[in-house]
Amino acid sequence: MKIVNIVLTLLFILFAYFQFNDPDPWLWIVVYLYIALISGLAALKIYNTWLIRLGLLGCVVGLGILLPDFLDWLNSGAESITESMKAEKPHIELTREFLGLLICGLVLGMHLWQSGEVGKRTDRRRS
């Protein structure tokens, strides 16, 4: 998994770099660098589950906010979102953002799973 985590780190740094021409670059640069940091730490077998869960919470909130625009895109026939880098219609850019957050959430979920916290049974009863 170390190689996968290194590749993810480099990919998310690259994703952050390509956000400079986005309408709201700083938000997405921060998001993608956050995921790159988590992935880089995972490559070193350092899993801060608090940071991972915070990122997942942010993804879930963002996905909830962008869901109506994603559904509009689906209902409008799911036209190509890659045809042009300049989004002519607002729901195309928002669909790209939705899918970007979905990828971030999946990567964070994978890191949470790698940490061993998923499915871990904790008994909170006192003996």
3D structure, described in words:
The protein is mostly helical. The protein has one domain (2-115). Helix content is 69%, strand content 0%. The protein has helices spanning 2-17, 25-43, 49-75, 90-115. The radius of gyration is 17 Å and the shape is globular. It starts with a helix and ends in a 12-residue tail after the last helix.
Shape descriptor: globular
Please compute the radius of gyration using only Cα atoms: 17 Å
- Span between termini: 38 Å
Structural class: mainly alpha
Strand content: under 5%
- Low-confidence sequence ranges: none
Largest sheet: none
Write the element-wise H/E pattern from the N-terminal end onward.
Answer: HHHH
What's the number of structural domains? 1
Mean pLDDT reading: 85
Number-wise, the strands total 0
Into which percent range does the helicity of residues fall? 55-70%
Instruction: Tell me the number of helical segments per DSSP (H or I, 4 or more residues long).
Output: 4
Per-chain topology:
Blueprint lengths: L1 H16 L7 H19 L5 H27 L14 H26 L12
Helix pairs in contact: 1-2, 2-4, 3-4
Short description:
The chain is an all-alpha fold and 127 residues long. The protein has one domain (2-115).
Can you tag this structure with a few keywords?
globular; 127 residues; 4 helices; mainly alpha
